[in-house]
Sequence to fold (295 residues):
Amino acid sequence: MTNLIENFINYLSVERGLADNTLIAYRRDLDKYITNLEERGIKKIEQAQREQITEFILKQKDDGLSTTSICRSLAAIKMFHRFLVRERLAPMDPTSLVETPKIWKRVPDVLSQSEVDAIINASLGRKPQLIRDHAILELFYASGMRVSELIGLKVENVNFEVGYVRCLGKGRKERVIPIGKRSRDAIQKYCDHVRPKFLKNRMSSDLFLSRLGKKVTRQCVWKLIKLYAKKANIQKVIKPHTLRHTFATHLLQHGADLRSVQEMLGHADISTTQIYTHVDRDRLKTVHKQFHPRG
Fold:
């Protein structure tokens, strides 16, 4: 069964073009699924029945996995069995009648405009690392990119004249995101005065570098965000995607249309982008309660 998983992962990578992080998550989910089947005495994948899959999902719930993680795991299992049937490696799909758990879409945490300004301003300074960090924060908020997209940027991905960045999103899908003057100026200053010092006569096309001249890591970016949030005395818990959520919410609050925000975020489905309209509705409810005579 391990070989079947390997064939499936290769299919997702080559033909579907799924991102590496997604492939890693699917492989991990399927390894757990196969292990569970083997513990139940099932040695061949075609012996798997709906009952075993349902019991596996219930076990994950009992183990304390979130609904989101369980849904991703079930999605991997369903895709795996469909792949096996299509490739004629199994006679039937036992997942066809297995229902996906309902997910309550949680409104993401966002920062206010003043909180964002405070975090970005906390990185102002003349030291090379501060100039780099300031450029990262300005671009992060200006573009709403994922962390993986930001650290994967190359120097040639930034068009200073027109004011946009090209990035590779999930499934290696390219998109163009406009950026404002503040972000452009911050990146230009970093590229002119700091990046050459970090390179130390070495060659690299990566945009954001560490002091050792290597590409910055995801961990580095999140550490610096938490660092400047702490310096700005922001009491909210800053999680991955916080600036991305804030970017989308602020655009909608100031009148941007949902389709444009979807395109800038790189969401394949507009329903994913619609979660940010809930944030704006909460704001409207607050305004209504505050100002309406019968609020």
User: Anything to note?
Assistant: The longest strand covers residues 164-168. The two ends are 60 Å apart (CA to CA). Residues 2-86 form a domain with the DNA polymerase; domain 1 fold (CATH 1.10.150.130). The chain has two domains: 2-86, 113-237.
